Amino acid sequence: MTTVTRSTCCYCGVGCGVLIEASDGRITGVRGDPDHPANRGLLCSKGMALADTARSTTGRALQPELRVHRDMPREAVEWPVALDAVAERFARIVEQHGPDAVAFYVSGQLLTEDYYVFNKLAKGLIGTNNIDTNSRLCMSSAVTAYKKAFGADGPPTCYDDLERARTVLFAGSNAAWAHPVVFRRLEAAKAADPSIRWIVVDPRRTDTAAMADLHLAIEPGTDVALFNGMLHHLIWEGLVDRAYIDEHTEGFDALKSAVRTFTPAIAAELCGIAEEDLIQAAVWFGASDAALSLYSMGLNQSSHGTDKNLALINLHLATRQIGKPGAGPFSLTGQPNAMGGREVGGMATMLAAHRDIGNAADREELAQLWGVQALSARPGLPAVEMFEALRAGTIKAVWIVCTNPAHSMPDNARVREALDKAEFVVVQEAFTQTDTVPYADVLLPAASWGEKDGTVTNSERRISRVRAAIDAQGDAKPDWWIAVQIARRIEQRLDRQREAPLFAFDTPEAIFNEHRRLTENRDLDIGGLSYALLDERGPQQWPFRAGSEQGEARRYTDGRFATDDGRARFHAARYQPPADAINARFPLRLTSGRLRDQWHGMSRTGRIGRLFMHAPEPTLDIHPGDAARRGLSEGDLVRVISRRGELVLPVRPTDDVRSGTLFAPMHWNAQFMSSGGVNEVTDPAVDPDSLQPELKHAAVRIEPVALPWHVAAARRGDALALQAAVQPLLGACRYAALAIEDDLLILRAADTAAPAGWLDRLYAALDLPSGDDTLEYRDARRGLDKRALWRENVIHGFVLAGEVRQADTLFAAVRSGEPWRGSRLSVFAARRAGETASAPRERIVCSCMQISETQIQAAIARGASMPELKTSLGCGTVCGSCVTELRRMCETAAIGG
Ligand SMILES: Nc1nc2c(c(=O)[nH]1)N[C@H]1C(S)=C(S)[C@@H](COP(=O)(O)OP(=O)(O)OC[C@H]3O[C@@H](n4cnc5c(=O)[nH]c(N)nc54)[C@H](O)[C@@H]3O)O[C@H]1N2
Ligand SMILES: Nc1nc2c(c(=O)[nH]1)N[C@H]1C(S)=C(S)[C@@H](COP(=O)(O)OP(=O)(O)OC[C@H]3O[C@@H](n4cnc5c(=O)[nH]c(N)nc54)[C@H](O)[C@@H]3O)O[C@H]1N2
Ligand code: SF4
Ligand SMILES: [Mo]
């Protein structure tokens, strides 16, 4: 029997509602929930593919594992053994070295209930504020700026504003890929009313920028100069709202003198854009009936990210583009529960329900609510410092939950060193193939999406229920449960038992109810919410006070802010260049970000072939002029070198980036390539207020690297099992990348020569033994080694090492599964005329309908328009994630002739 469970997508902060279909304990399908106010039935390519990610248990963490010594492998143990081991070790370290000798590094992908328990465990029970989260890499600057400007965290806006805005300013946001359903809604609004203006501020011409009326391709890191220049123009042209400023704000005069020097001409020059464009943007924004800004990592991930946020908020306050429909500074949250984490105070610098560590009254009130003596007044260490302290030995033990710092932290080699040096590392994970799992002394298997219950809050402050559609796989347990079990044990060992036990929770609902109590009479008051109400009436926005009928869609509509005097604050934002200075040795600016179909470290999206096909290999985007000057063409491998480290990547010349700027996707890591990914070279410098690292900017140089020995390989079978088998070999090559294609694993690698013994290990990992079914060819003198495995007349796998000229033919043969025509011996000789050396598989643009770039281009060449593409090929008709790209392809063809 098929059951349908209403839940929420586990990826981005849009927070789309999903309907999960399940039968016999397996998830069989996922659809958009037509009744969810965020998406009204829509899903993007990642959401559409959710069921596939849950299909197989290969690669899931299914049992607790423990190792008694660093040099020994972990072994499976029963839960009580694992729980005792963690509790005992944490308690012992706290007794010997004090509470600040342990740390928790958690995640905006936890549910609010999970998050709440971890925060209470660290701050309430152990007495340390050393609990930080990957939100430090993500939302911290936005939080800090909201608090500075408005007196409280949280966006004043809501999704309804998407349809009401007259001017939309995207700043450092590639919403077309990162928040696709929000983008779909904006697209529909603009299609219905083409007079709506879009401005995009992004150094790259992203799919978002390609749709803009005005794209400001600023130099990375120059946003403050841009916003100050826009404000200068608005002030001197009289486009600010003096009455609003006088009545509802503080600090305008100081700001006015601070932006005096930012004339449009000077600001435009600093940003590397045309002065007219800056002025145009200012006028469209300031004179608009409703200007909405949507911003994300291009602002936050900066060594002056708080100032970037504040400079943008200044524009909104000065022109009264806030507190009314369609207007306001809308920080798009990245993770599904970045907001919930902020609500429970799950960071090193905050306390539960928007309380402050630095505020004695807040600490006392919370201690009382929790029934503990006192809370530590010492702020905990934020992410970057936390791992530094682990490396230095001042923190002895870390418990990592639902995040993969060995991949996602800046300068990740240092993080790996820290994990290596740490006395005790606990990793609580749903999947085993991540870069952090190898460091775990204890691996705690977590129930994952589709298997757990609780709540999340999306970008517009809307709380949705997450519900389990099936039982947890194997012995995996919900994150809150694991935390509660260990907390109780630590409580016992530290002999901190109280009259009322701190962790008496038996359900997520009990946790939610306690969290609710902590929010009462505060800005995020959810006193009127309950699971029953959410179940009955669907997702709700906070604040939602007791006795009220509904939440608040927009905040500060009466011009009263959450500061003591009710006035918002202007802050004179200082323009500063990025921390990692450009010079003759490191002349290029490297930025990084998301791809449409991958999610972070790929532990989930990297499980399905469909999501690889839009971008099958890691790449380094470079301006064609910069590439030509260095004699580089598409696919050439280069070393990308920064002051911290290096990695090898294939270049992709494209004028989507400006000259002097490079872009690499953040996703690839040691599970799929030969290095830890782009964070080998990124900069751990942080913003002084938000302590968020500058992941969006590193000064680098690139050098060509001659790696004449190439490998191309493919193997049919359980691709996830094959990936796990081949992954340990990747690091031995200067360059290697894996991709998954349904029941196929694809490998490409390159080096100066074959690493010793490597090929034999590869043959074993790919299960390509010598034998009757295997055709082999070896030429030691020329360094050639080739193998193909046959079943009947069909090639089931091959390795070409040394040179890979036949790769295309063989990839095609393995993919098609059709019998090989011609003699077996011809496989290593065959190379049809016109074939290039290693053209990757055709790029698939439409993931839902599996329509390739070539098919679309052919249709466009025959004169197909955008609507005709949809009717003739079907592309862009399901989730819509590819529509911007389709439109771009049509436009490019039209311009090109
Ligand atoms: N497909 C997909 N979607 C996701 C995620 C994912 O992994 N995959 N992750 C989610 C998460 S956690 C997050 S935080 C969001 C992130 O969502 P976004 O922030 O929209 O995504 P990014 O690609 O990281 O960065 C956005 C843009 O910032 C630009 N940028 C770089 N430097 C600067 C600068 O100095 N100024 C300006 N103005 N722009 C700059 C980059 O060129 C990039 O296009 O996405 C969420 N959604
Ligand atoms: N260079 C560069 N680096 C970046 C960024 C960038 O733009 N550029 N962006 C930064 C940002 S904004 C973010 S948010 C971070 C994200 O970085 P991470 O947090 O490291 O990213 P994920 O891969 O999503 O990690 C989540 C982990 O939790 C596991 N997991 C999934 N479900 C569950 C569950 O229910 N319970 C438990 N316990 N585990 C689960 C997944 O398998 C995965 O390994 O990356 C940051 N790093
Ligand atoms: S936009 Fe896509 S990834 Fe984000 S919540 Fe919706 S379906 Fe999930
Ligand atoms: Mo994020």
Automatic annotation (TrEMBL):
Database matches in InterPro entries: Asp_de-COase-like_dom_sf, BFD-like_2Fe2S-bd_dom, BFD-like_2Fe2S-bd_dom_sf, CT_Nitrate-R-NapA-like, MoPterin_dinucl-bd_dom, Mopterin_OxRdtase, Mopterin_OxRdtase_4Fe-4S_dom, MopterinOxRdtase_cofactor_BS
MF annotations from Gene Ontology: 4 iron, 4 sulfur cluster binding; metal ion binding; molybdopterin cofactor binding; nitrate reductase (cytochrome) activity
Cofactor: [4Fe-4S] cluster; Mo-bis(molybdopterin guanine dinucleotide)
A biological-process GO annotation: cellular respiration
UniProt protein name: nitrate reductase (cytochrome)
Pfam families hit by this protein: Fer2_BFD, Molybdop_Fe4S4, Molybdopterin, Molydop_binding
Enzyme Commission identifier(s): 1.9.6.1
SUPFAM superfamilies registered for this protein in UniProt: ADC-like, Formate dehydrogenase/DMSO reductase, domains 1-3
4Fe-4S Mo/W bis-MGD-type domain span: 2-58
Organism: Paraburkholderia dinghuensis
Taxonomic superkingdom: Bacteria
Enzyme class at the top of the EC tree: oxidoreductase
Catalytic activity line of the entry: 2 Fe(II)-[cytochrome] + nitrate + 2 H(+) = 2 Fe(III)-[cytochrome] + nitrite + H2O
UniProt entry keywords in alphabetical sequence: 4Fe-4S, Electron transport, Iron, Iron-sulfur, Metal-binding, Molybdenum, Nitrate assimilation, Oxidoreductase, Periplasm, Signal, Transport
PROSITE patterns, per the entry: 4FE4S_MOW_BIS_MGD, MOLYBDOPTERIN_PROK_1
